[in-house]
Design brief:
- By secondary structure, the protein is an alpha/beta fold.
- The chain is built from 16 helices and 15 strands.
- Helix 1 runs parallel beside helix 4, helix 8 runs antiparallel to helix 9 and helix 13 runs parallel beside helix 14.
- The protein folds into two domains: about 260 residues, 3-Layer(aba) Sandwich (UDP-N-acetylmuramoyl-L-alanine:D-glutamate ligase), CATH 3.40.1190; about 150 residues, Mur ligase, C-terminal domain (Protein-Tyrosine Phosphatase, Chain A).
- It is about 40% helix and about 20% strand.
- The two termini are about 20 Å apart.
- Strands 2-3-1-4-5-6-7-8-9 form a nine-stranded mixed beta sheet, sandwiched between helices. Strands 10-11-15-12-13-14 form a six-stranded mixed beta sheet, with helices on both faces.
- The protein is globular and about 65 Å long.
């Protein structure tokens, strides 16, 4: 019964959203891909908001429910029937009364199962599509026939572009580069490759005292070069949202200086390689939003460039929805982590494979410990960490690794502001 009611509500708000788009005719920027969608969406929105009245997807509202809610400008009512009725009423008001509607919508779209993204493109016609990373083992691959099928779905908004539309994708991504050959619209590329039209050059971390506070990079297009600093996050891969946002800004004829000013003030979303002060004078790298093999590797590579007085403690949880690739990928990550971590903590049933991989790479057993839940790991870490340690926390959403970062965060009064999944509804789960 609950599923049936949800399907009815989704059908109603989707119909309302479709009518709203036809009535107000906003320019639509769709952000799709497997990894880094929310960071890209936020960076793009920050740039476009400098010159336009925009609305972006809230948090990671990229599903068949979240996208219509964004179009209607409504929060997620979760399980409140009263609030769902309010959403439906607000949709009718948008349709039948005149409202001050945004010029541009920045919509993040994601796929949990086959047909999710393609289904949204049945009623959304994007003017610009930005594609993030399409890795060899995509997120949600277990729901698809193959990794290729997953990537094709995630790339599908490019085929829904208007005739005057623009596709923006990373030239570093061989899968996206191959799929882009089937697109006949305007194309702009970004990345670290010399062949990218918007090219990035990572310059390294920026320190305040002994602690990293962000990183600096150059963004180049032709003979033009702009220097930017992204504060609050670490990792070369964190430059991709800035490069994609720069490309979008150029498509909308925003001056390069204005674009870079927006990027300098861009703050990466919670739980995405965010740098925080931890308890006992530790450095906390919070990457607890989600996890996939390619993102795990990127996070582990990042801690390699950080000098610390104490230990590098790596806390890795399950990577979910990998299907038949799960065992091999967890073992592979364990082998890789053994090269980067001084001490490895694994969390969850699947993460036992990470511990197995680290063991195969000859990491000493006394340098590893496994826990079934994030709460157990948090209790252990509260006593384990010492002055000068670095702690990286990463795992899939279902493992709730943010419970660890919440325990280790020094300024707990700011947890709701700094960490992911701190609202009341998530806390109940």
């Amino acid at each position: 019964m609950k599923t049936f009611l949800k399907s009815i509500i989704v059908a109603i708000i989707t119909l309302e959203a479709k009518i709203v788009l036809k009535k107000y005719k906003p320019t639509i920027v769709v952000v799709t891909g497997s990894v880094g969608k929310t960071s890209m969406k936020d960076a793009v929105a920050d740039v476009l908001s400098r010159q336009f009245f925009i609305r972006k997807s809230i948090k990671s509202y990229n599903s068949e429910t979240g996208v219509p809610l964004t179009v209607l400008g409504c929060d997620n009512p979760w399980n409140s029937h009263v609030l769902w009725m309010k959403v439906i009423v607000e949709g009718f008001l948008l349709i039948f009364t005149k409202n001050h509607y945004p010029n541009i919508l920045v919509l993040e779209v994601g796929a949990d199962k086959p047909g999710d993204v393609k289904g949204m493109m049945d009623w959304i016609t994007p003017d610009v599509v930005v594609v993030t990373k399409l890795p060899s083992i995509p997120v949600h691959v277990e729901a698809y026939a193959s990794p290729d099928a997953t990537r094709e779905e995630e790339f599908s908004p490019a085929h829904a572009l208007t005739s005057e539309g623009t596709l923006i994708y990373s030239k570093d991504d061989a899968f996206a580069d191959k799929l882009a050959k089937g697109v006949s619209t305007n194309v702009v590329t970004y990345g670290f490759s010399d062949q990218a039209e918007v090219r990035g050059e990572y310059k390294g971390l920026v320190y305040e005292g002994n602690a990293p506070k962000g990183f600096t990079a150059d963004i180049m297009r032709g003979e033009q070069k702009e220097c930017v600093t992204v504060v609050g996050a670490a990792g070369k891969h964190q430059l991709y949202p800035a490069l994609g946002a720069y490309a979008v800004g150029l498509v909308f004829d925003i001056l390069p200086g204005v674009i870079c000013d927006a990027i300098k003030k861009y703050n990466p979303p919670q739980g995405r390689m965010r740098l925080h002060e931890g308890i006992k004078n530790t450095l906390l790298i919070d990457d607890s939003y989600n996890a996939s093999p390619v993102a795990m590797i990127a996070a582990l590579d990042t801690i390699s460039e950080i000098d610390v007085v104490g230990e590098k403690i790596v806390v890795l949880g399950d990577m979910l929805e990998l299907g038949t690739f799960s065992i091999d990928e967890h073992v592979h990550i364990g082998r890789y982590a053994a090269k980067k971590a001084d001490f490895l903590i694994t969390v969850g049933l699947r993460a036992k494979g990470i511990a197995e991989g680290a063991n195969k790479a000859r990491m000493a057993k006394k340098r590893m410990v496994h826990f079934n839940t994030s709460e157990e790991a948090a209790v252990f870490l509260k006593d384990k960490v010492q002055d000068g340690d670095l702690v990286l926390v990463k795992g899939s959403q279902g493992v709730r690794m943010e419970r660890i970062t919440e325990t280790l965060l020094r300024d707990k009064d700011r947890a709701e502001e700094l960490l992911v999944r701190q609202d009341t509804e998530w806390k109940k789960r």
